[in-house]
Design brief:
143 residues; globular
């Protein structure tokens, strides 16, 4: 019984410490697009935020700047196919599937832009509308 009580206290203490872990907030500077450089595995340093572009009117424009940066690095021989960015307090994840947004680095991601068959980025609903339009039978001309 005493062992069970001790184990329960230890588990509660560890859970409490994990809950106190400081969450890394994305910069909130208006209109500024950042690239996020994550620390190397095992390093105790926080992520670094580097300005990619200023005067970006919307988060989608920032995502486009990050995609441009990703493509340039790949053309130069880089191998990193995923980039993390930040815009006005939100994180942007440019991945193989497309672009996702999140409030936290380890939070739930909202898929905002999907890749088309040729690798471009598009709103997911627009892709389905194009597929549906291509499969629809041609309508008869009206007189």
């Amino acid at each position: 019984m005493r062992r069970l009580l001790t184990l329960a206290l230890v588990v509660t203490a560890v859970a409490g410490l994990a809950a106190c872990e400081k969450r890394i907030e994305a910069p909130r500077e208006r209109g500024v697009c950042y690239s996020v450089q994550m620390p190397e595995e095992g390093a105790k340093t926080p992520p670094q935020f580097h300005v990619v572009a200023r005067d970006q009117p919307q988060i989608e424009f920032c995502a486009a700047r990050l995609e441009e940066m990703r493509q340039r690095f790949l053309r130069l021989g880089g191998s990193n196919r995923e980039i993390i960015g930040a815009y006005q307090g939100q994180y942007i994840f440019v991945e193989r599937r497309g672009v996702a947004f999140s409030q936290a680095l380890d939070g739930v991601r909202f898929m905002a832009l999907a890749r088309t068959g040729d690798g471009r980025l598009a709103i997911p609903g627009a892709i389905q509308r194009d597929i549906d339009a291509a499969q629809a039978p041609a309508s008869a001309p009206t007189k």
